[in-house]
Amino acid sequence: MKKVLVIAGPTASGKTALSVRLAEKYGCEIISGDSIQVYRGMDIGSGKVTEEEMRGIRHYLIDILSPLEEYSVRDFQTMAREIIDGSDGMKIICGGTGLYLKSCLYDYAFREEEGPSADPQLEKLSNEELYAMLKESDPVQAEKIHVNNRRRLLRSLTIQRRSGRPQSEIEEEQKHEMIYDAFIIGCTMPREVLYERISRRVDLMFEAGLEEEVRTLLQNGVTFAHQSMKGIGYREWQAYFEGQADPGEVKEEIKKHSRQFAKRQYTWFNHQMPVHWYDVTDPEEEKRILAEVERWMKCSSHI
User: What residue spans define the domains of the chain?
Assistant: First the structure.
């Protein structure tokens, strides 16, 4: 079993800096698990790692697609596994939603009915209508999806229509076993500290020119209907560019959605994956991370 080190946690929790420090120490390369950092020109809103922050460490799955293209959890699974399986040495996966990470690390097999195209009849419905349908037909799956995550709502309902079975039932049949020897580091901190860091991070994005970044994307043909614009930090600008909100309101919406997403991430990881949580605001915790990672690295693992 190949070893994979994973750095998980909410936005603004210090994952990027920690992943680079660990990559330097252990001579690793880093795979980005972020669903927006794959897109060129979407740097500020995604909090994309900069060349300076990379410190010479090779990063995969960053700036590989146009914002006009689609990128799915299935794509991430395929590409991340190819990188891990096709090279020697340990890889680090940094960031990403829980589903992206789980699809790569576990025996998650996509079925044909899980293709990208949604049922045309479903496309006509609002997010609220889609969510109500899912809540009635598959309440277990509905608990995992936010009402505004249209892509996942469409996907779950489409799978159900094509297979005749709820997605949650299909997923339950899988063994949920890891195919890699993964050690998952979870970056955490007191909730009030995290929320302060999220607020400051969003302020810095605005200072760095987030509004102009979004305007440039729109001028280049990207619309709010594209998948790339569904991420937090981008989708909130639709109201502004339609004349229904000012920049201050957009900023507050981004902060609110980031806090809500952080809360959902903690809940998801605690229920779905064996995460080792560390308070990254405590200088002593990094020593514990290194000690536990090195102990794990010395253990052999076999399929």
Answer: 3-109+174-298, 112-173
d(CA 261, CA 157): 22
CA dist list (Å): 287 to 14, 57, 108, 280, 297: 16, 22, 33, 11, 15
- If you classify domain 112-173 with CATH, what class do you get? mainly alpha
**pLDDT, tens digit (0-9, with 9 covering 90-100), for 5-42:** 999 999 899 999 999 999 999 999 999 999 999 999 99
Q: Which CATH class is domain 3-109+174-298?
A: alpha beta
- Dihedral of alpha carbons 263, 264, 268, 274, sign: negative
CA distances from 2 to 188, 293, 297 (A): 26, 15, 11
Q: Which of 204, 184, 200 is nearest to 192 (CA)?
A: 200
Token pair 């999220």 is at which residue?
Answer: 198
Q: Which amino acid is residue 248, in one-letter code?
A: G
